[in-house]
């Protein structure tokens, strides 16, 4: 059976909203990691057969097939094409899947996967809302769809409502969420202080480290914040941060590894994606993980490290409750609550961090999953070589 190998993985630092990357064109963020990827791998860029990039809200500077724009902005060969993927927050994880599937099918040998997002320039819907303002059906992309309304009625369809539903269903208190958020910051700060991210980051100008982790955050400060939705429990403190950044990986076949003298660092062991309730929206990592483990015959005891996106604290806490996973294996260097969540780039950022942490710790299997708009979740399992 053909194999798909990860040869290289690199990312920018994750910039804070209105931070050091906020004025960088998203194509230039993507171009930066693509240039670094080519330089670090030593691959002939003309041998790349496609560039698959994730991006959400492809309007303004993110429009026009930004995967192609990023490649050209990096000064790389014009004959290499690019395609942009939107599976919401999982867009660049899906980009990795499409790239790996091209290699596994035998139709491609070298494919670049990744993603870019500048949320400072292009805010997501609801991101600038004031606490207590209603978030309703009529504001989303579903508004006006008779078929949707016939199936789901006028229920609110947004991430904050979904996070509240998860917290209620799994009995997760605001205190539980705030303690989890504080742990995310502390883990991220430890990783920064110990230089754990240094190998995976290509500094952009003066921005050399992730800007999101807060050294001064406390449970008392979190408790003082107003909920996003009046009467709810979700606050900014237990939510992922609005962020800017990009990440990219090089995937190769066995033939490409031999022909180009590449060194594979991990093997793609499993790829899948599942869906469930689009109103609750963010709980699909639970059935998606169960599906992936069943298909592979692995258990969570076989998994050395897990990266599950911290879109909101209850997403991870509910997943932990359902799966019984060891919290000490999950998001060991913090997650999006501390490090940020540049939507279309996060999937590739998580995969980049997962690969490097497996190498640092000597682990074998790593599992990545994340919640996505529409009630979906990708799962990727890689094996370090």
| Helix/strand order, N-terminal first | EEHEHEHEHHHHEHEHEHHHEE
Q: What structural category do the secondary elements indicate?
A: alpha/beta
Strand content: 15-25%
CA-based shape? globular
Radius of gyration: 20 Å
Mean pLDDT: 95
Question: Unreliable segments (pLDDT under 50, ≥5 consecutive)?
Answer: 126-138
Please bin the fraction of helical residues: 25-40%
Q: In this structure, how is the largest beta sheet organized?
A: 10 strands, mixed
The number of helical elements comes to 12
Q: What is the terminal-to-terminal distance?
A: 17 Å
Structure summarized in a few sentences:
Residues 263-384 form the Thiolase C-terminal domain. The chain contains twelve helices and ten strands.
Descriptive tags:
35% helix, alpha/beta, ten-stranded mixed sheet, 385 residues, globular
